[in-house]
Each structure stands twice: as structure tokens, then as C-alpha cells.
Amino acid sequence: MHKFGVPLSGKFLGTLLTLPFLTSACGGGEPPLAAGTPPGVPVKLETVVPSTIKESSEFVGSLEAKQRVDLRAETEGRITRIFANSGDKVTADTPIMELRLERSRAQLNAEIANVNVARAARDNAKAELKEAKAEKLSAQAEVELQNEDFERISMLVSQGALPEQRLDQVRRDRNRAVAELEASQERIEADRASLDEANATLVQAQANVEVATEDLQDNKIVAPIAGIVGDIELKVGDYVDIGDTITTITQNQSLDLRLSIPLEKAEQLRVGLPVELVSYQKDEVIVTGGISFISPQVDQQVQGILIKASFPNPGGKLRDEQLVRARVIWEERPGVLIPTAAISRLGGQNFVYVAATPEASEQEQSQAGEAQQIAQQKPVKLGAIQGNKYQVLEGVEPGEKIVVSGILNLSDGTPILSESSSSSPVR
Fold first, then answer.
1. Which residues form a coiled coil (predicted)?
2. Mean pLDDT across 32-46
3. Whether residue 275 sits in one domain with residue 198
4. Would residue 58 be called left, alpha or beta, if left means φ above 0 and alpha means ψ between -120 and 50 degrees?
5. Number of domains in the chain
């Protein structure tokens, strides 16, 4: 029973005597709150833990596949079958479509005719060379005969048996025979060159026949690389010419991102520097890659440095030519991050509410069962924002519990009740 150091008036004593009846009338089985203790405000608490601070810059760029092929027709013909559908995953040499190569058949017939013409020209060149060689043999025999006549007549003229005019005539005949021998030799050389040319023409014509035959047999357009088939706009029955684009084959397993980095960041660039791709909707990191190329030249138009960052794409979520947000991570260091929802502002100063336990007497603790937590307002110095969290430079330390919900209902010293779902740490 409590003892009071002041005398009780009759009115106050009556009030005290009435309290047990009021309690029974309410039917409450819970012990009453300690005198002067207001009910706590429900809040969510999170424990501050060490985090990684990232100094970064954001850019926008377009992804490009490392391997992408525009599949073009190498022959002309009418489409008879289409084996693949847009979006199919195919391996190298997988047939995409089949053509009926009508013009290739005509080309083959023309090439066969060219072979026959070339063979006839080659045979004619052989015959002419053979004839030229025979003429040379006859000319050689004539030269030998004229030499013998010249020696014999020359001797008779020197003996006075024949006049000098006879020797002059024999000399002219010998010179004519020598000239005909030289002419036959030149004809042989010309005919041999003609034969070589005819042989080369025949070989080329035969090669053209082989190519035309292969073109006729190779009537399927196949994928040169493994990848995903792009849009196929052509239909069965369409006619395609040489060079017409059929579709694309794209490998999305790995992608490159081209970015222009400002010159003031040039000294921080290095191959392997982390680059994150960030979702537009949720500001979440989709995938992390790294810088794989740094241009040795400066783009004079934008005064920037071209870099390429490479990213894996095992799930195929990223696409060739997709516009993405990229975050270049210049530096990583330990620090403290807290949610933006935990920050309150007053008079230009940033604050957080930290869960604290006020000092209480043994009598109050025994009545309450356990110490009542209160929200203690603490000023903080903030750094850069990272996602949906602020870097804290001063004010809170790892291990402290901060209020991350319901801060609009709080003031310094407000009693709080921690929600059961608030066990996750702040990272």
C-alpha cells in the first residue's frame, strides 16, 4: 500500500476507492500502463550495418551484340520452303530457307557451252602449232640445201667455171630460205602462246561449270553462325536476288556497350573498371560487366573518350541495340548507407530517429515489464545518394537501430513500438 506525504481530501479518497470498480467494469485483464507512460507509435526499425559506398557516374548507351550477321542471298531464285521462324535459336549451318534456282540451271548450261567452245579453240590452236612445227622442219631443210648450193657455186665461180652473177643468185636464194626459217620459228612461238591461252580459257570454263553445278545443288540458305533468328518478312513464293537481305542471326550471349566518357574522367579510366546496367523502373542492377576497351583517341565533337564495356547475358534478358542506363563505378569503399525514407529535415538540417532506451527507475521497469523504447532525433551529415539510400558521413554508426517508417508521427523522445517485420539490416 502506498503512503502519501500529504493529507488526502475526502473527494480524492473517494476517487481512489472507485478505481477498482471501474477496472472490473471494463473487464480488462491487462495490467495498467505505468503512470505518465503514453502508448508507443508503431514503427519499423532496421539495424545499421557496414555497407559499400560506390562513387559512380551514370550514362545512357545502346547495347550491341558481339556477333551479328545480316543473312543475304548468294544466289537468286524463288523461295520454295522456309525452315526457321523468327526468334528461333539455331546452330551454325542450320538451313533457313530453300530456293528454286531457275536461273542457275540456265547459267550451268551456258557454262557447259563455253567449255565446248574453249575446247574447240584449244584443239585448233594445237593443230596450228603442229603445222607451224612442220613448216619449220621444211624451212630448215631448205636452208641446209641452199647452204650446200652456195658452197658449190662459190667454188665454181672462184675457178672461173661460172659467172659471178650465178653466185649472187644462189646467195639470194639462201637468204630467202633463212628468212623463211626465222618466220616459221616466230609462228611457232605465236601458236604456242595461243595454245596456252586456249588451255587457260578451257580451265576457267571448266571451273565455271563446277561453280554453276555447286550453285545449283546448294539451293539452301543456311545460318553462318549460331544465334537467334531475326524477323523474316519473306514468304514462300517470293523471288530473291543476289544480295537481298533474308534475316539476321544474332548472338546475345555477350554484349558490348559503347559509351563516351568526359575528358575530366580520363585519368580514372582503366580496363576492368566495373560497369553496372541499371533498370529504368526499379533502379536495380541488372548485370555487372567491365570496361574492355578504351580508345586512344579523343572524339573532337563531344570532347569525350570512347569506351566499350562487355556484359554477360546468360538469361537472354538483354537485347541487341537495347537502350540502357549504365553506371560506371569509379571507386568502392566501406561506409554507411541508410534508406531515404529514414531521413527527416528540419530547418535545413537532416535528421534520423534512433531507437533508444531512456533511463528508468527499478520501480518503473518492474511495472512496465521491460524498458520502453523512444525515438531519439539525431542530426546526420549526408553524402551522395546511392540508389534509394543515402551515404551517411556523420551521425550514426553500425549497430544502431534507426526508424525507417512512420517518421512523420515522431518527435524527439516519442515512445515507439517496433514492428515484428523489422529485423532486416540496413546495407
1. 115-215
2. 70
3. no
4. beta
5. 4
* Domain assignment of residue 15, yes or no: no
Contact 55, 80 (CB under 8 A): no
Query: In terms of domains, do 262 and 306 share one?
Result: yes
Let me know if 270 is exposed, middle or buried by CB neighbors in 10 A (0-12, 13-18, 19+): exposed
Residues 110, 211: one domain?
Answer: yes
Q: Are 76 and 103 in contact (CB under 8 A)?
A: yes
Instruction: Provide the CATH number for the domain around residue 344.
Output: 2.40.420.20
CATH number at residue 238: 2.40.50.100
Section 153-181 average pLDDT: 87
C-alpha cell at 123: 584443239
Q: Indicate whether 304 and 340 sit together in one domain.
A: no
- Do residues 400 and 47 lie in contact, with contact meaning Cβ atoms separated by under 8 Å? yes
For residue 410, what are the CA distances in angstroms to 30, 220, 281, 375, 418? 26, 75, 31, 7, 13
Cα–Cα dist 315/34, whole Å? 59
Q: Is the pLDDT of residue 295 over 90?
A: yes
> For 122, which DSSP code?
H
Residues 297 and 384 in one domain: no
CB count in 10 Å sphere of residue 215: 19
- The answer to whether 255 and 278 are in contact (CB under 8 A) is no
The three-state DSSP-derived secondary structure of 156-199 is: HHHCCCCCHHHHHHHHHHHHHHHHHHHHHHHHHHHHHHHHHHHH
Residue 425's pLDDT is 59
Q: Which domain holds residue 349?
A: 36-52+336-426
Domain presence at residue 224: yes
How far is the C-alpha of 168 from the C-alpha of 332, rounded, in Å? 111
Average pLDDT, the chain: 83
